[in-house]
Amino acid sequence: MARIDKDTTSAIVAKFGGKPELLVQIMATIVNRFGWVPEDTIRQLATELNLSRADVHGVVEYYHDFRTEEPGKHIIKICQAEACQAMGSKALTDYAEKTLAMSMHDTENDITLEPVYCLGNCACSPAIMANGKTFGRVDEKRFNAIMDDLRGKA
Ligand code: FES
Questions:
Q1: Bridge partners of 134?
Q2: Does the reported pTM lie above 0.85?
Protein backbone atom coordinates (compact mmCIF):
# COMPACT_ATOMS: atom_id res chain seq x y z
CA MET A 1 0.00 0.00 0.00
CA ALA A 2 1.26 3.51 -0.80
CA ARG A 3 2.70 5.68 1.92
CA ILE A 4 0.89 8.94 2.60
CA ASP A 5 2.88 12.14 2.17
CA LYS A 6 2.41 15.64 3.57
CA ASP A 7 1.11 17.17 0.32
CA THR A 8 -1.53 14.47 -0.04
CA THR A 9 -2.62 14.94 3.57
CA SER A 10 -2.91 18.70 3.01
CA ALA A 11 -4.91 18.15 -0.18
CA ILE A 12 -7.34 15.84 1.65
CA VAL A 13 -7.74 18.37 4.48
CA ALA A 14 -8.39 21.11 1.90
CA LYS A 15 -10.97 18.93 0.14
CA PHE A 16 -12.94 18.96 3.41
CA GLY A 17 -12.52 22.72 3.77
CA GLY A 18 -10.02 22.37 6.62
CA LYS A 19 -12.95 21.84 8.99
CA PRO A 20 -11.98 20.16 12.26
CA GLU A 21 -15.52 18.85 12.70
CA LEU A 22 -14.92 16.71 9.59
CA LEU A 23 -11.93 14.93 11.14
CA VAL A 24 -13.66 11.53 10.99
CA GLN A 25 -14.38 11.93 7.28
CA ILE A 26 -10.83 13.15 6.65
CA MET A 27 -9.37 10.16 8.51
CA ALA A 28 -11.72 7.77 6.68
CA THR A 29 -10.55 9.18 3.35
CA ILE A 30 -6.92 8.72 4.35
CA VAL A 31 -7.47 5.16 5.62
CA ASN A 32 -9.52 4.16 2.56
CA ARG A 33 -6.74 5.37 0.32
CA PHE A 34 -3.64 4.34 2.27
CA GLY A 35 -4.82 1.71 4.73
CA TRP A 36 -3.51 3.44 7.83
CA VAL A 37 -2.70 6.75 9.51
CA PRO A 38 0.96 7.14 10.50
CA GLU A 39 1.95 9.19 13.55
CA ASP A 40 3.40 11.92 11.29
CA THR A 41 0.03 12.29 9.63
CA ILE A 42 -1.75 12.46 12.99
CA ARG A 43 0.60 15.29 13.96
CA GLN A 44 0.00 17.07 10.65
CA LEU A 45 -3.78 16.71 10.93
CA ALA A 46 -3.71 18.17 14.44
CA THR A 47 -1.72 21.17 13.18
CA GLU A 48 -3.74 21.78 10.02
CA LEU A 49 -7.10 21.36 11.75
CA ASN A 50 -6.03 23.32 14.82
CA LEU A 51 -6.72 20.38 17.12
CA SER A 52 -4.59 18.79 19.80
CA ARG A 53 -2.86 15.50 19.04
CA ALA A 54 -4.96 14.02 21.86
CA ASP A 55 -8.12 15.03 19.95
CA VAL A 56 -6.90 13.24 16.83
CA HIS A 57 -5.70 10.20 18.79
CA GLY A 58 -9.10 10.03 20.49
CA VAL A 59 -10.75 9.57 17.09
CA VAL A 60 -8.13 7.02 16.03
CA GLU A 61 -8.69 4.95 19.16
CA TYR A 62 -12.48 5.11 18.88
CA TYR A 63 -12.65 3.79 15.31
CA HIS A 64 -11.05 0.36 14.97
CA ASP A 65 -10.48 0.80 11.24
CA PHE A 66 -8.21 3.81 11.78
CA ARG A 67 -5.07 1.76 12.32
CA THR A 68 -1.77 3.48 13.11
CA GLU A 69 0.46 0.67 11.90
CA GLU A 70 0.96 -0.24 8.29
CA PRO A 71 -1.21 -3.24 7.39
CA GLY A 72 -0.16 -6.19 5.28
CA LYS A 73 -0.97 -6.43 1.60
CA HIS A 74 -3.91 -8.68 2.51
CA ILE A 75 -6.31 -7.71 5.30
CA ILE A 76 -8.39 -10.56 6.70
CA LYS A 77 -11.18 -9.71 9.13
CA ILE A 78 -13.05 -12.45 10.94
CA CYS A 79 -16.41 -11.55 12.41
CA GLN A 80 -16.60 -12.00 16.18
CA ALA A 81 -20.13 -10.73 16.71
CA GLU A 82 -23.00 -12.77 18.10
CA ALA A 83 -24.48 -14.48 15.02
CA CYS A 84 -21.07 -15.50 13.74
CA GLN A 85 -20.00 -16.69 17.17
CA ALA A 86 -23.09 -18.90 17.29
CA MET A 87 -22.04 -20.43 13.97
CA GLY A 88 -18.41 -21.14 14.86
CA SER A 89 -16.39 -17.98 14.31
CA LYS A 90 -14.28 -18.71 17.38
CA ALA A 91 -13.20 -22.08 15.96
CA LEU A 92 -12.61 -20.43 12.59
CA THR A 93 -10.48 -17.76 14.29
CA ASP A 94 -8.44 -20.45 16.06
CA TYR A 95 -7.99 -22.24 12.74
CA ALA A 96 -6.92 -19.02 10.96
CA GLU A 97 -4.43 -18.17 13.70
CA LYS A 98 -2.99 -21.67 13.58
CA THR A 99 -2.73 -22.03 9.81
CA LEU A 100 -1.39 -18.50 9.32
CA ALA A 101 0.90 -18.87 12.36
CA MET A 102 -0.17 -15.51 13.73
CA SER A 103 -2.55 -13.94 16.22
CA MET A 104 -5.39 -11.50 15.82
CA HIS A 105 -4.16 -7.89 15.38
CA ASP A 106 -0.85 -9.13 13.96
CA THR A 107 0.71 -8.52 10.58
CA GLU A 108 2.93 -11.28 9.24
CA ASN A 109 4.03 -12.24 5.73
CA ASP A 110 1.89 -9.60 4.02
CA ILE A 111 -1.23 -10.59 5.98
CA THR A 112 -3.04 -8.59 8.65
CA LEU A 113 -5.53 -10.55 10.75
CA GLU A 114 -8.19 -8.56 12.57
CA PRO A 115 -11.47 -9.08 14.38
CA VAL A 116 -14.55 -7.28 13.11
CA TYR A 117 -17.91 -6.92 14.79
CA CYS A 118 -20.61 -7.69 12.24
CA LEU A 119 -20.16 -7.46 8.51
CA GLY A 120 -23.90 -7.26 7.87
CA ASN A 121 -23.75 -10.82 6.61
CA CYS A 122 -25.26 -12.52 9.68
CA ALA A 123 -27.56 -14.76 7.63
CA CYS A 124 -24.46 -16.40 6.17
CA SER A 125 -22.43 -16.80 9.35
CA PRO A 126 -19.63 -17.22 10.02
CA ALA A 127 -18.49 -14.35 7.85
CA ILE A 128 -15.10 -12.93 7.00
CA MET A 129 -13.84 -10.04 4.92
CA ALA A 130 -10.77 -10.50 2.76
CA ASN A 131 -9.34 -7.37 1.13
CA GLY A 132 -12.69 -5.63 1.38
CA LYS A 133 -14.77 -8.50 -0.01
CA THR A 134 -17.23 -10.29 2.27
CA PHE A 135 -17.52 -14.09 2.34
CA GLY A 136 -20.19 -16.09 4.15
CA ARG A 137 -20.49 -19.61 5.56
CA VAL A 138 -16.73 -19.81 5.86
CA ASP A 139 -15.46 -23.14 7.11
CA GLU A 140 -11.84 -24.29 7.17
CA LYS A 141 -11.93 -25.50 3.56
CA ARG A 142 -13.45 -22.25 2.30
CA PHE A 143 -10.98 -20.22 4.38
CA ASN A 144 -8.08 -22.09 2.76
CA ALA A 145 -9.55 -21.50 -0.70
CA ILE A 146 -9.95 -17.77 0.00
CA MET A 147 -6.35 -17.54 1.22
CA ASP A 148 -5.05 -19.52 -1.77
CA ASP A 149 -6.95 -17.17 -4.06
CA LEU A 150 -5.48 -14.10 -2.37
CA ARG A 151 -1.99 -15.53 -2.69
CA GLY A 152 -2.58 -16.37 -6.34
CA LYS A 153 -2.45 -20.12 -5.74
CA ALA A 154 -6.02 -20.90 -6.75
S1 FES B 1 -22.58 -11.20 13.25
FE2 FES B 1 -21.09 -11.73 11.80
S3 FES B 1 -21.82 -10.79 10.00
FE4 FES B 1 -23.21 -10.14 11.51
A1: 129
A2: no
Phi, psi of 43 (to 5 degrees): -65, -45
Q: How does pLDDT run across 87-143, given as a tens digit for each residue?
A: 999 999 999 999 999 999 999 989 999 999 999 999 999 999 999 999 999 999 999
| Of the candidates 130, 111, 105, 115, the residue with the CA atom closest to the CA atom of residue 72 | 111
Give the mutation target among 80, 84, 137 for probing the ligand 1 site: most ligand atoms within 8 A of CB: 84
Structural domains present in the chain: 6-62 (no CATH), 74-150 (3.40.30.10)
**Ligand 1 atom closest to the CA of 81, numbered from 1:** 1
Single out the residue of 103, 91, 97, 75 nearest to residue 139, CA to CA. Answer: 91
In the reported structure, the alpha carbon of residue 27 is separated from the centroid of ligand 1 by a whole-number distance in angstroms of 25
Residue closest to 138 by CA, chosen among 147, 149, 125: 125
